[in-house]
């Protein structure tokens, strides 16, 4: 089953703040122009860290929706709900401090979400196309955050 076009386009658009963060980290003129016109929240590393925190919390909501599809009997729904709040809690407790530690914790958070995605897909609660979307998106986000760490 292919990834629905709307989901793919929105996911790709969701990469833009991560890519923008890399671009402003690698280009001093772009950084200065963005800083002057957009402000400090919209340049590297801040745009990546704030947006990454929001998206990690958003992914908790997505997983909650998957958990809602689980049968109530047998405990799978309860386990799913419990697992679904982990990314938001991770973002809340672990993303802070300096930009390097915050970016590293976001990387670990996104990799953790991918494991949760896999588990929900294994349970048959995620759409059949879900991992075909999430694996490349996660790799792209982790790469962007990783470039932010080393630049």
From TrEMBL:
<feature type="transmembrane region" description="Helical">
    <location>
        <begin position="133"/>
        <end position="150"/>
    </location>
</feature>
<dbReference type="InterPro" id="IPR021836">
    <property type="entry name" value="DUF3429"/>
</dbReference>
<keyword id="KW-0472">Membrane</keyword>
<protein>
    <recommendedName>
        <fullName>DUF3429 domain-containing protein</fullName>
    </recommendedName>
</protein>
<keyword id="KW-0812">Transmembrane</keyword>
<keyword id="KW-1133">Transmembrane helix</keyword>
<feature type="transmembrane region" description="Helical">
    <location>
        <begin position="45"/>
        <end position="66"/>
    </location>
</feature>
<dbReference type="Pfam" id="PF11911">
    <property type="entry name" value="DUF3429"/>
</dbReference>
